[in-house]
Structures are given as C-alpha cells and as structure tokens.
Specification:
mainly alpha
C-alpha cells in the first residue's frame, strides 16, 4: 500500500463524501479511484451501468428500478 498526495480541496470533498456514503475516507478514495478507472476503460457505459455491473459481479441481486425495462 502506498500514499497518494492530493490537493487539500479534493481531500475535503473526499472527507465529506465519505460521511455521506458511510465509508472511511480511504474506502471512499478507493471507490472513486476504482470507478474512475472503470469509466476510462468503459467510456460507453454510464455510472449507473458500471455500478450495476460491479454489484452483479459481486453477487448482489439489486432490485429493478421502477420504470426500468428488462
């Protein structure tokens, strides 16, 4: 594991997001890094599609949203 240097303002946003998401600051940073990488590797997929794909791969059976078509 290593240390990542980030700007103070980004760290503050990270701290706030971690509280809202009930994650540690490190877990929030890892989430953003992982999703950012997935976005770069899959530019045609939306954030929601990427999260749904990751949840499915982890074995989570997410309910279908109202108005969604299967």
């Amino acid at each position: 594991m290593g240390i990542v240097n980030i700007e103070d303002e980004l760290h503050e946003q990270l701290r706030r997001a971690s509280k809202a998401s009930c994650r540690s600051i490190n877990a929030q940073a890892a989430f953003w890094i992982r999703l950012g990488l997935l976005c770069e590797l899959n530019p045609g997929l939306s954030f929601q599609e990427l999260v749904a794909r990751e949840l499915k791969a982890a074995g989570v059976n997410a309910p279908i949203a109202v108005g969604a078509t299967a």
